[in-house]
């Protein structure tokens, strides 16, 4: 088994089948691009892995152990999930960062030097820490969330359209940051071509995944 295995997973909402007998395996260190049209089950897969929903049948294994309500918090301490939603909080960026790293699943709070270095790598000034998060542009919000992900201290990432609001140069920089680290396992949902050039494997949901 890999670091993450999905076996015969079926999910439906309001009578509509989202995933049917889906099978999927990820080895440690793999960099995987997931693509396909909207509503086909890509984001649902990530939410099921993180325990944010119920599935009809099947099992999800993390490092060979079935994920359940008892061990899901242990999984969340090892996996960073970044969703498409960037409107995650109100208040100053610094307060948002403080809140995120107070969560039970986030135990490694970054130091000031690491924070400023990562902000700079994503073309953000330290001044952004004092700004109102909800007044930032879509691209700035996305980069702040990426900073949080990069500083999470975890080595498994589920990234859902995390470069959609960025320009081409920043898209490539983000891809390089996640895909060039040999110790990280990365699953990225994206329509941006920058991810495809470095992905070890591409899974197209539109082509059928059962």
UniProtKB/TrEMBL annotation:
**Record's superkingdom?**
Archaea
Recorded hits in PROSITE patterns, A to Z, give:
ABC_TRANSPORTER_1 (PS00211), ABC_TRANSPORTER_2 (PS50893)
Keyword flag ATP-binding: yes
Q: Which UniProt keywords apply?
A: ATP-binding, Nucleotide-binding
Q: Name one GO molecular function term.
A: ATP hydrolysis activity
InterPro entries attached here?
AAA+_ATPase (IPR003593), ABC_transporter-like_ATP-bd (IPR003439), ABC_transporter-like_CS (IPR017871), P-loop_NTPase (IPR027417)
What SUPFAM superfamilies does this protein map onto? Answer: P-loop containing nucleoside triphosphate hydrolases (SSF52540)
Q: Where is the ABC transporter domain?
A: 4-210
PANTHER family linked to this entry: ABC TRANSPORT PROTEIN ATP-BINDING COMPONENT-RELATED (PTHR43119), ABC TRANSPORTER DOMAIN-CONTAINING PROTEIN (PTHR43119:SF1)
What's the protein name? ATPase and permease component of ABC-type transporter involved in cytochrome bd biosynthesis
Organism of provenance: Methanolobus tindarius DSM 2278
Q: What is the lineage of its organism?
A: Archaea, Methanobacteriati, Methanobacteriota, Stenosarchaea group, Methanomicrobia
């Amino acid at each position: 088994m890999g670091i993450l295995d999905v076996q015969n997973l079926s999910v439906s909402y309001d009578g509509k089948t989202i995933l049917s007998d889906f099978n999927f395996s990820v080895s440690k260190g793999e960099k995987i691009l997931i693509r396909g049209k909207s509503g086909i089950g890509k984001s649902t897969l990530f939410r099921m892995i993180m325990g944010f929903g119920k599935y009809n049948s099947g099992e999800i294994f993390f490092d060979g152990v079935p994920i359940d309500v008892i061990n899901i918090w242990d999984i969340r301490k090892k996996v960073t999930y970044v969703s498409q939603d960037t409107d995650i909080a109100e208040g100053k960026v610094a307060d948002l960062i403080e809140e995120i790293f107070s969560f039970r699943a986030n135990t490694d709070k970054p130091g000031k030097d690491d924070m400023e270095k990562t902000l700079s790598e994503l073309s953000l000034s330290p001044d952004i820490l004092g700004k109102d998060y909800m007044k930032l542009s879509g691209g700035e919000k996305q980069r702040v969330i990426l900073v949080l992900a990069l500083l999470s201290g975890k080595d498994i990432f589920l990234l859902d359209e995390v470069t959609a609001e960025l320009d081409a140069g920043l898209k490539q920089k983000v891809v390089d940051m996640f895909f060039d680290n040999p110790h990280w396992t990365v699953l990225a949902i994206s329509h941006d071509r920058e991810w495809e050039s470095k992905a070890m494997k591409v899974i197209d949901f539109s082509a059928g995944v059962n």
